[in-house]
Amino acid sequence: MCGIFGMFGNKNASKLSYLGLYALQHRGEESAGIASSNGSKITYHKGMGLLNDVFSEKIINSLKGNMAVGHVRYSTTGSSHHKNMQPFIVYHKKGHIAIAHNGNLTNAFELRDILEERGAIFQTTMDSEVIAHLLTRSAEPRRENVIDALSKLKGAFSLVMIFNDTMIGARDTYGLRPLCLGKLDGSYVIASESCAFDLIQAEFIRDIEPGEILFINKNKIESVKPFEKTRQASCIFEHIYFSRPDSLVFGANVYLTRKELGRQLAREYNVKCDLVMPIPDSGNCAALGYSEESNIPYEGGMIRNHYVGRTFIQPEQGVRDFRVRVKLNPVRPVLKGKRVMVIEDSIVRGTTCRARVKTLRESGAKEVHMGVSCPPIISPCFYGIDFPTKKELIAAKRTVEEIRQYIGLDSLHYLSLDGMLKSICLPKDNFCTACFSKNYPVKLPKRASKYILEKNR
């Protein structure tokens, strides 16, 4: 997951990066950081927690320079620790480098072993640090240096980097994680999602293409596609859960896609109910679509406390369980004596759903049915989503009927794989569906395979 942002050619680069990251806060709540540069000197600030807790106006004003990169973190590789905060900063004889990375490198273990055998000393447990070592060890000139380093990476990476006086944006050949390019008064902007451009009133230009590297220097932009082409396999979970509804991701609007997922769910699964309600906020759009297609009234049966973070992206289960209890509160008069259709965007571990259904029953719901706007998640993700082991996935070890009984529902239906792919107005072959189908676009190297197999036992 994670949110990354870059600004080149603007005297307010750090301030605009702060605002851009604010729009991307939903992509990571663990830590935040901004590095700025004038081409010859780099300054930075990083801290654990939300953006607003990490930065003050004084700190932002101290980050001088006409280019900046920023990061909000959600950990998948590397523990939740201050050493693993990004952007990752390197001072070297070639100059200075700041790296903001979204994704997971599947060959990080292999590369780290090779680099350590050659004398590299790692300061963090992040896979992102591997990129820094590759950049500093390459003997090629800068442009070829970057191409050479990135050509060694496998897996998912969307990157924004400062390399001396140049800003670099890059995306893996599969396009697993999103990254887009914008422009503001002659300055170039790079961000994980287009909603970051809206906040600073930048113009959305286009997605950075899979396998593309952008070099931005002195307000000029150069695009290269030096890697062997692979199939596109963008993460479909961006449309189901991660991205903000107001973003354009992989060429499709997230809000409209989620509504269509709900419509398709209603075509596949229509139970006599008195009301349709979402689990706020990620289920809102799908619930609207379900209501419109089924002609069952939409109600807000639960109200979200917006001062509590997203439960799914908390790093520890104990914290996650506490957030569930304080995050949502039922509207009892709406629920009492009613047959309720609850729309969820996904079920990962099942713990949060079970707690919510219990709350609905305690609030007087006569029946509780649930529709899920994606198929069962049966396989771990190795490309940047926080369900890396099968033992965490309820659908990997239980049937739909067993899940229904565990959660305490009167009925449960998941959207079919074909129905999900049909709902997105893009070629269905453009998406990675590995978490639903076990069809992984990027094979795991032996070192990573052994590690992941051990975790999955």
In CATH, the architecture of the largest domain is 4-Layer Sandwich
Total of domains: 2
Mean pLDDT: 90
Estimate the global geometry from the Cα principal axes.
globular
CATH superfamily of the largest domain, please?
Aminohydrolase, N-terminal nucleophile (Ntn) domain
State the CATH class of the largest domain.
Alpha Beta
DSSP, total strands: 23
Question: In what order do the strands lie side by side in the largest sheet?
Answer: 3-2-4-1-10-9-11
Low-confidence stretches: 449-457
How far is it from the N-terminal to the C-terminal residue, by CA?
25 Å
Radius of gyration: 22 Å
Structural class: alpha+beta
What's the story with the biggest beta sheet? 7 strands, antiparallel
How many helices? The count is 18
| CATH topology-level name of the largest domain | Glutamine Phosphoribosylpyrophosphate, subunit 1, domain 1
**What percentage of the residues does DSSP assign to strands (E)?**
15-25%
Topology:
Blueprint (H helix, E strand, L loop, with lengths): L2 E6 L4 H11 L7 E7 L4 E7 L2 H4 L2 H6 L4 E7 L14 E5 L2 E8 L5 H10 L10 H10 L4 H9 L7 E6 L2 E6 L8 E5 L2 E5 L3 H6 L2 E5 L5 E5 L2 E5 L9 E2 L1 H6 L5 E2 L2 E2 H15 L6 E4 L5 H11 L7 E3 L12 H11 E3 L1 H4 L3 E6 L6 H12 L4 E6 L21 H4 L2 H8 L3 E4 L2 H7 L7 E2 L1 H4 L8 H10 L2
Parallel strand pairs: 14-23, 17-20, 20-21, 21-22
Antiparallel strand pairs: 1-4, 1-10, 2-3, 2-4, 5-6, 6-7, 7-8, 8-12, 9-10, 9-11, 12-13, 15-16, 18-19
Helix pairs in contact: 4-5, 5-6, 9-10, 9-16, 11-13
